[in-house]
Amino acid sequence: MRKRHSIPRTVAFNKPYDVLPCFTDTEGRPTLADYIELSDVYAAGRLDRDSEGLLLLTSDGALAHRITDPQHHLPKVYLTQVERTPDESDLEQLREGVVLSGKRTRPALAHLLLKDPPLPPRPVPIRFRTHVPTAWLELTLHEGMNRQVRRMTAAVGHPTVRLVRMAIGPITLGDLQPGQWRELTQTEVAQLSYG
């Protein structure tokens, strides 16, 4: 049984590729427990096994709700590597929102990066196809539908091949390397809670 910690704790974690966003797995796959040895912190939101980057974990239930509830409009920033180079009309569709399962996504910020971002290489390289170039986009969303970024880019004809979350509200990945975590400061927690 996990021991309760009297003061709520919140940490930022750079989730590596192929790690499940939970602490246990009956199939023995890599989980958060392989990297984080804190009691009573749980992921505030999801980051799929095949996605990388910033994941916030907290023992504060109210804060977890604020982070995950789309009513709070907490922006989440992603870098997504997609097949082929989107043109302006593709980007405009992402900005206006696309229809996924009969529901239009909220307007997003979307722009094409002019050069590849300085990210650490993925332990399992993406599958390159020689005649299908890739491009990087920065997308900022204010909601968290299941696999939303991947579904949005696919809907406009540019499937995602790599996805890295860079920020949640005021908290950024910074210089955390894959598998590293740090405790948030009181100021950062206050910014998340009331910002």
SS content category? alpha+beta
CATH-assigned fold name of the largest domain: Alpha-Beta Plaits
In terms of DSSP E residues, the strand content is 25-35%
- Overall 3D form: globular
Proportion of residues in helical segments: 10-25%
N- to C-terminal separation?
Answer: 34 Å
**Fourth-level CATH superfamily of the largest domain:** Alpha-L RNA-binding motif
Main β sheet profile: 9 strands, mixed
DSSP summary, beta strand count: 11
Please, what is the average pLDDT? 91
How would you sum up this structure in a few lines?
With about 200 residues, the chain is α+β, with helices and mostly antiparallel strands. The chain is built from four helices and eleven strands; from the N terminus they run E-E-E-H-E-H-E-E-E-E-H-E-E-E-H.
Write the layout of secondary structure elements.
Blueprint lengths: L9 E6 L26 E2 L8 E7 L2 H8 L7 E8 L4 H9 L2 E2 L2 E2 L4 E4 L21 E8 L6 H8 L4 E9 L2 E2 L8 E3 L2 H9 L1
Parallel strand pairs: 3-9
Antiparallel strand pairs: 1-3, 1-11, 2-3, 4-8, 4-9, 5-6, 7-8, 9-10
Provide keyphrases for this structure.
nine-stranded mixed beta sheet, Alpha-Beta Plaits, alpha+beta, two-stranded antiparallel ribbon, 195 residues
Description:
This protein has 195 residues and is an alpha+beta fold. The protein has 2 domains: 10-70 and 174-183, Pseudouridine synthase I, catalytic domain, N-terminal subdomain (Alpha-Beta Plaits, 2-Layer Sandwich), CATH 3.30.70.580; 73-168, Alpha-Beta Plaits, CATH 3.30.70. Helices cover 17% and strands 27% of the residues. It is built from 4 helices and 11 strands. The chain has helices at 61-68, 88-96, 148-155, 186-194, and strands at 10-15, 42-43, 52-58, 76-83, 99-100, 103-104, 109-112, 134-141, 160-168, 171-172, 181-183. The strands form 2 sheets. Strands 1, 2, 3, 4, 7, 8, 9, 10 and 11 form a 9-stranded mixed beta sheet that branches. The longest helix has 9 residues, at 88-96. It starts with 9 loop residues before the first strand and ends with a helix.
